[in-house]
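pls ignore typos typing on phone
nicotinamide-adenine-dinucleotide + seq
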Amino acid sequence: MNRRDFLQSASAAALASTTIARAATPAVKPVRLGVIGAGSRGQEDLRQFLRVPGVSVEAICDIYPPRYEQVNRIAGKRVPATANHHELLARTDLDAILIASPVSLHAEHVIATAQTGRAIYGEKALGFTVEDNHNILAEVTRHKVLFQIGHEYRYAAWAQEAIRRVHAGDIGTPTHIYAYWHRNGDWRRAVPQPDPEGKLEHLINWRLYRETSGGLGTELGSHHIDMANWVFDEQPQSVIGTNSICRYHDGRTVGDNVQAVFSYSQGRRLVFSSITDNAKQGCELWIYGTEGSVQITIEDATFYYEKKRSNAPSADKADSKTVVERGVVTGASYSTAGEMPYRGPGEKVVTPTSEDPTLAAVRSFIGAVRGEHEIFADVHCGFRAAIACAVAHDAVFEENKMAIPGMRG
Ligand SMILES: NC(=O)c1ccc[n+]([C@@H]2O[C@H](COP(=O)([O-])OP(=O)(O)OC[C@H]3O[C@@H](n4cnc5c(N)ncnc54)[C@H](O)[C@@H]3O)[C@@H](O)[C@H]2O)c1
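k done
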């Protein structure tokens, strides 16, 4: 489709939707979606969006043409397509824009969209660099557009319930969060045709190169940083970390493993680890509190409680290994008792629904577009996680403690 056809189809679609609107009063207000960046995540988001009543996709923008047919298959119709996001944004028949381009392009795409005043569902991370994040926040705020960040675990029923209980004091004072995202795979995508100059390699495997990717820390860790920010109700103040290439010496310039410690106020910490050569730990986040722990995964949440014990030994509790002399209890200076973790099934969080988090997130976004409620994972939430990712991206290479700036103004 050429440029004129692309824009003409916009006017025709606008006319058609007006006619339909006049002919019948729809049960729900239609929301017409445009997509910028229709790759793997864009397509998954789109699949979920199309499950929400009243949502349709009316245009896509992607610089890789094979995406057009892939989207047509998902939509079940021919969706007007362009390689230029300004052309997509010039259409008059779009109510909301899904942005799922690579992170290094988020600032360009989000800011251009915010300037048109449309609602935005923006994939994480909010922005790539520190400056990108400040600029996106400023423009989204200046244009007063609705913006939801793709931190879909904020919409997982079990995560919401677990964190509600943590905030209510269920595990005492939460002090540490340990988050793992361990996989066994090279994180590489196949390049489907000869590519002598490596251009397609960089387009398809942008995640593996430092100039376009924050590596595992941003791509996976951003979700965990967001959850830690949610639990501690603030963003981290500094980060120290490291990364290396341990297994995949294939030309990538981001680590195939990363470890980072994020510091919050009052000495609280998030410890994040991601490796790509062993999947035993999987994806899980542990919140440790003074009276218990909760494990949150991408499927469920489970509480465990610390053993209740008294620090003051009494003569009554003396066993064969302790000696009571003149009222003083003595015993071995080290005992293995209590060193091993308490095991058992724990107490699984039960929720009325366990809807797919992405479906729950996009459904909620559409509700916000229809004016039914506010956005939970808003641009501030996106900023607090992404600014930490942007700084951690440098910190894991420099292996220095680096301060994470807060919002300006
Ligand atoms: N929320 C989540 O759980 C989740 C999961 C996966 C990915 N993501 C995020 O989604 C985003 C996309 O990731 P992905 O895995 O889909 O990547 P991808 O490479 O599969 O898709 C990105 C698409 O953007 C297109 N693109 C590149 N440059 C463009 C440009 N200038 N204009 C328009 N389109 C352009 C590419 O051709 C590609 O089709 C990233 O920010 C990633 O972090 C989020």
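Residues 14-22, 313-318 have pLDDT under 50 and may be disordered. DSSP finds twelve helices and 17 strands in the chain. more later
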